[in-house]
Structure formats: structure tokens, C-alpha cells
Specification:
Keywords: Oxidoreductase. One of its GO terms (molecular function) is oxidoreductase activity. Helix 7 crosses helix 11. It is globular, with a radius of gyration of 19 Å. The protein has a single domain, classed as NAD(P)-binding Rossmann-like Domain (Rossmann fold). Strand 7 and strand 8 form a beta hairpin. It has 11 helices and 8 strands. The chain has about 325 residues and is α/β, with parallel strands linked by helices.
């Protein structure tokens, strides 16, 4: 019994040290006040999106919670208002799996809001299916929806410069590969439904995020708009809610020791959105509030240009 207790104490101590060194991560050091600034955060009804919105609202920003589910979005709205004491928090419905919804959101926003200083493309999912436009669901929500949204709001961002675009990717992009033949033929990153195949689609969509940011930075040269992609860390959020019960159980076990909480997970997003002096790093990828080098496939000029042109075609921009 004493031996088991000793082992338990040692394991708990080791887990605590591991979390403090490797999991907790750095914090955003910016003290920037955002009074008079307007920010959009997609997927801000839960997880790191909501904690990001709370932080920004506390800094005085007008924060737009752009969420698909109205009930969950309105619930988050009340939570953010209560946590911050701010009246400058607004819910607007946005379904990234519908190009019509994205266009409607952008039209309403541009009509009702005079500024846009920071756009945080945070929303994402881990599941297969099809969007209302016939695109692969993972590709449509994680990349195409944000691609179109960014384009529709870009002029307003330019007018309000210096401004920023932050694309929440994942370290999983390192495992991703984009099958352009599949994208061209089936408008999806993959067709399989096994866990492995869904994971491959997810990581490919995260690679799309990094390549999109890389190409966007080129096109923004000469403007006062900068853009960044990032890995938030392994986070205790609801992104896994659409996976199998067995998968959720396994992830829950890992979360207890090795995953960041949403506040910790939002720090790199906040760093990219707020930290002064990183403008020259536009188009780069960040992890743990630090710029990181990426593999050649994540800064491939040909692939980035091809993805951009295909995305323009699929969204009707070209």
C-alpha cells in the first residue's frame, strides 16, 4: 500500500513538473489597450475562441462573436459580458460551412460596423461530411469559409490599418498533405471516414491554413495589414465532440495531464493579434508565442499559389 502511494505521489509530481515546463507554455505579454478597436473572433462560443474574446473585451475592444449555433452563441455572449463587464460584445451568426452564410455575415457586418482592426479565424472542426455547397466539410469549414470571409472583409481591414489577420492552425499541419487531384475532382481533402482518414483531412486543412497565411502575406505587402498562423497547443476544448465515444474517452485521459486549458491555449492567438514589433514576421507561423520555422511544404510557393487559385474558384471570387 505504501509503495503504491509512493508511486502515485511520484507520478503526480512528475506530471505537475511536466505540465509546468512543457504544457503550460508562455503567456502573451502585450498590455495593449483596445478601446475603439473592433475584433471578430470566429468559433467564439467555446474553447480558446471564447477565452480569446474575453481577453480582448477586457482590453476595451468591441468584440464580435461569430458563431454557427445561435443558442450557444447567445449563451457565450452572456458569459463574455458577465466575465468582462463589457457592453461592447455582440453575437452575429456565421456558418462557415455555407458560403451564403459567410457572404450574409460579411454584408451585415460591413453595413453595421465602421471598423475592423483584428480578424481572428479561430473556428475549426474534426469530422467528415459535406457543406451545403458540396465541399468536404473539414476543408469547407477549416479553410474555405475563412478564406472567403477574409476576402470579403479585407478592404475594411485595409481602411483601418494597421490591422491584423490571425489564422488558428495546428502543429498537425506537419502531418498534412494536400491532394490537389482530390480537391479538384471531389472538392474535398479526402473521402474516407475512418479515424485515420479523418485525421488526414484535418491535418491537411491545417496545412491549408498555413499556406493561406503564407500567400496572403505576399498579397498584403505594401498595406498596413499583417497576418499570422499559429499552433495554440493541445487544448482541452470541444473540437473532439464529433468523434467516437472511444476516441473521446482516450482524449479525455490525455487531457488530464498533457493538454492546455483554454486560457493557456489562447495565449499564442493573443500574441499574434496584439504583440507589437512582429509586423515584419507577417505570413509566419507561431507556436508558444514564438515564431517557428516550418517544413518546406508549408512554405511551398507553387502549392500556396495553387491553393489560392483553387479557393478563389470554389468561392466564386475568380
Amino acid at each position: 500500500m505504501c509503495t503504491l502511494l509512493l508511486y502515485a505521489v511520484v507520478f503526480a509530481g512528475a506530471a505537475y513538473i511536466f505540465r509546468q515546463i512543457f504544457v503550460k507554455g508562455k503567456r502573451c505579454k502585450s498590455q495593449l489597450n483596445l478601446t475603439g478597436k473592433t475584433v471578430i473572433v470566429t468559433g467564439s462560443n467555446t474553447g480558446i475562441g471564447k477565452t480569446t474574446a474575453i481577453d480582448l473585451a477586457k482590453r476595451g475592444a468591441r468584440v464580435i462573436l461569430a458563431c454557427r449555433n445561435e443558442q450557444r452563441g447567445l449563451s457565450a455572449l452572456e458569459e463574455v459580458k458577465k466575465a468582462t463587464g463589457s457592453s461592447q460584445v455582440v453575437f452575429m451568426q456565421l456558418n462557415l460551412g455555407s458560403l451564403k452564410s459567410v457572404r450574409s455575415f460579411a454584408e451585415t457586418f460591413l453595413k453595421n460596423e465602421s471598423r475592423l482592426d483584428i480578424l481572428i479565424n479561430n473556428a475549426g472542426l474534426f469530422m467528415q461530411g459535406r457543406t451545403s455547397d458540396g465541399l468536404g466539410l473539414t476543408f469547407g469549414v477549416n479553410h474555405i469559409g475563412h478564406f472567403l470571409l477574409t476576402h470579403l472583409l479585407l478592404d475594411r481591414l485595409k481602411q483601418c490599418g494597421p490591422s491584423r489577420i490571425v489564422n488558428v492552425s495546428s502543429i498537425g499541419h506537419n502531418f498534412g498533405n494536400i491532394d490537389f487531384d482530390c480537391l479538384t475532382t471531389h472538392k474535398a481533402l479526402g473521402l474516407g471516414t475512418s479515424l485515420k482518414e479523418v485525421f488526414q483531412c484535418y491535418t491537411a486543412s491545417k496545412l491549408c491554413n498555413v499556406l493561406f497565411t503564407y500567400e496572403l502575406a505576399k498579397k498584403l505587402q505594401g498595406t498596413q495589414v499583417t497576418c499570422y498562423s499559429l499552433h495554440p497547443g493541445a487544448i482541452k476544448t470541444e473540437i473532439w465532440r464529433n468523434t467516437s465515444s472511444l476516441m473521446q474517452l482516450a482524449i479525455a485521459s490525455l487531457m488530464a495531464f498533457f493538454f492546455k486549458n483554454p486560457v493557456q491555449g489562447s495565449q499564442t492567438t493573443l500574441h499574434c493579434a496584439l504583440q507589437q514589433g512582429i509586423e515584419h514576421l507577417s505570413g509566419r507561423y507561431f507556436n508558444n508565442c514564438t515564431v517557428r520555422d516550418v517544413y518546406p511544404k508549408a512554405k511551398d510557393d507553387v502549392a500556396a499559389k495553387r491553393l489560392w487559385e483553387l479557393s478563389e474558384k470554389l468561392t466564386g471570387l475568380a
